[in-house]
Fold Glycosyltransferase.
Amino acid sequence: MIIAYVLNTYPQPSHSFIRREIQALERQGHQVVRLAMRRAEAPLVDVRDRAEAEQTSYVLDRRVLGLGGALLRRFLRAPGRGLAALRLALRCGRASSSGMARHLIYLAEAAEVANRCETDGVGHIHAHFGTNSATVAMLAHALGGPGYSFTVHGPEEFDAPGALSLGEKLDRARFAVGVSQFGRSQLCRWAAFDSWDHLHVVHCGIEPEAFADPEPAPEGPLRLVSIGRFVEQKGQMVLVHAMVRLVRRHPQVHLDLVGDGEMRPALERAIAKAGLQGNITLTGWLDQDGVRAALDRAHALVMPSFAEGLPMVVMEAMAAARPVVATYVAGTPELVLPGETGWLVPAGDDAALAEALAGLAETPVARLQAMGETGRARVLTRHAIDDQAGKLADLIASFEG
């Protein structure tokens, strides 16, 4: 099959799961055309991301004249389709906080995508996220392009489903997938009952060979790692507050905060105010190998999120045989089993988080190792990328021919 992946900004450091899915499909013999609207603003640290950027076509590189010409050609070839697509774009624009003008841009982007799919013989479009990438995929189909599907991750799509016209996207799609059963349940809230049969679960995947020989749990004082964008939903500020409590009982504990983002200055101020500079290190973004090294140095991963889809870093930590301390949100409890593979705490509760981390610090290393091995077996069974990409390919193939 020839499949077009329609994406907003690609590649990005936090979207390595998309790269793995694409490459797994290619290993299975499918051709994937990468169509992103724009390039990443931040420099790409990982050489794998830089290689993906070289293979990606950027729709907005066509600029106003190119996109306008693409849209005009679609209208001249099929005026009825063009008008129907225009009405759809305006209807979605009225529902959205981004407005109708932005949706007219999406329509022009969709025309370029439809033309490119025609040129390359694409039989199916798949988008990641139910936001503007799914809008472009839906409009490209309305303009006469191939049928589409999309993966919904959350939490953004679940925060504003009406403004995203999520129900319309689901009902028009060949199928849609959530990355967890929780995610699929949220799609059921917005899809018509008749569309429920077209809603599936396809997990994001890991590459088992990248975790073939996990390091044993380290000896010595507790070392923690937390990985993610520095934004409110990831809950790093709650983790800093929990560290204040934890250090009173375990003064030698150390936390690596891996990532970057808009909250970095606030986190730096909070760490300095609490006098935790010796206990918390902000590493910045690390490439895939750097993330693996950070996991290997740690006893456990901490994921203090307020909202999630199903965090890739939880899967990666479990594959590296590390227990996980996380919050009871979204699909996380489908992976992290209290007492077996880690700890779960209420989101936003720094006292409960500190207590869980103290329990972790007081757990013998041999027990942590056993929990890590249980988690590793669980995630390798549920999230091997070739298996998950195969599920997606089977869904796409059911509409081919």
